[in-house]
Amino acid sequence: MRAAPNNMAMQERAQLDAARAGDEDAFERLVEAHRGDLYAHCYRMLGSLHDAEDALQDTLLRAWRALPGHEGRSSFRTWLHRIATNACLDAIGRRPKRVLPIDYGPPCAGGDEPDERLVDATWVEPFPDDQVGLGSGYASPEARYEQREAVELAFIAALQHLAPRQRAVLILREVLGFSAREVATSLQTTVASVNAALQRARKAIDERLPAQSQQATLRSLGDERARDLVERFSAAFERGDVDAILAMLAEDVTFAMPPYAGWCRGRDEVAKSWLMPGGTPPRLRYAPTRANGQLALGTYLIDSDGGSYLPIALDVLTLDGTLISDVTAFRTPEIFARFGLPDRIDAR
Fold first, then answer.
1. For the residues 257-283, what does the mean pLDDT come to?
2. Domain boundary assignment for the chain
3. Across the chain, where does the E strand assignment appear?
4. Structure letter (DSSP) for residue 116
5. What's the CA dihedral at 5, 7, 10, 14 to 10 degrees?
6. How far apart are CA 206 and CA 142, in angstroms?
7. Are 331 and 319 in contact (CB under 8 A)?
8. Nearest CA to 134 among 161, 158, 152?
9. Whose CA is closest to 114, among 257, 241, 8?
10. What's the pLDDT tens digit per position in 18-51?
């Protein structure tokens, strides 16, 4: 039963030796097994799909250049994440913190016109975990958070409020399951400093996270009930049934629409907001997907010629039991392809 892991270790060692000798194909094969985890790590650190891509490319370039000096005292996985963490810390130092609208300012009235679009660099962005191939469950037995739990919108938003090195410590220890000594080596500090930073980070993030993760909520619902919820929600929008939509919302539901800063809270305010369908149906179509380990919908609006529906927003849904407690509608349709969504839906 132990032969397979040993064979895998021997294969990695052979590829590592070849890569150190200058074989770029061997390096690509080595990296491919870790690419999705590295991408998710960079996203957790930076809160941005686009920044994470840049940091991942920077990581791979740094790793290729540093490969001749990698002596194997740590695993290749640990070594790559060390490089990725420092690439992200460098990136954080060059740009402002990303947030969700709920952390940007107070709520507004649901009937208010959307304010001016703020620059995209202000906002946390959604993450296509299914398309990335992010694993389920825990990255290691030492991890405190599940891999998909640690990309949920609430978790990512909470991470952005931590000091950068606290953020790195919490992700490396509690999400990826690295030891305090490995983290200390990665950050060039002491184990005592890592443990102190972890305690402060745990306290800060626990204050911002909901009592139950979306992963736990989705498991309690089961696939069939979750699919039914999405289908009923989509159908209500497509037929313009506001009462049916409101019946699916929690009393204190929130709605935000980045890159607009305004957001509203409460079923009455959301009923007056831009979330609600307007005009004569059928004007909208929806395509189900997943984002940040959560239920999500690609929203499409009929074009002026009536021949097809074009993308307008990616709606990420947060559930409280069987009710929807938050809708974050990312008005960035250019990201649809990243979530496996079509660029148009033909009218029928």
1. 92
2. 7-93, 214-346
3. 249-256, 263-265, 284-291, 294-302, 308-320, 323-330, 345-346
4. P
5. -130
6. 18
7. no
8. 152
9. 257
10. 888 788 888 898 899 899 999 999 999 999 999 9
- How far is the C-alpha of 6 from the C-alpha of 252, rounded, in Å? 53
pLDDT-derived band at 8, boundaries 50, 70, 90: low
Peptide bond preceding 288: is omega within 30 degrees of 0, i.e. cis?
A: no
Task: Please give the average per-residue pLDDT across 316-343, as a whole number.
Answer: 97
Q: What residue type is 222 in one-letter code?
A: G
315 contacts 323 by C-beta, under 8 angstroms? no
Q: Chain-wide mean pLDDT for the chain?
A: 92
Cα distance between residue 129 and residue 44, in whole Å? 12
- Count of all residues that appear for the chain in the document: 348
pLDDT exceeds cutoff 50 at 2: no
Residue 73: pLDDT over 80 = no
Query: What per-residue string of b and e applies to 288-323 under the rule 16 or more CB within 10 Å gives b?
Result: ebbbbbbbbbbbbebeeeeebbebbbbbbbbbbeee
Taken in order 307, 229, 207, 195, is the CA torsion positive or negative? negative
Choice among 252-261, 300-309, 329-338 with the minimum mean pLDDT: 300-309
CATH of domain 7-93: 1.10.1740.10
SS3 state of residue 57: helix
| Cβ neighbour number for residue 109 with a 10 Å cutoff | 10
Separation of alpha carbons 67 and 48, rounded Å: 27
Q: How far apart are CA 254 and CA 317, in angstroms?
A: 10
Q: Which fold, 214-346? A: Nuclear Transport Factor 2; Chain: A, (3.10.450)
Find the range with the poorest average confidence among 106-110, 332-336, 337-341: 106-110
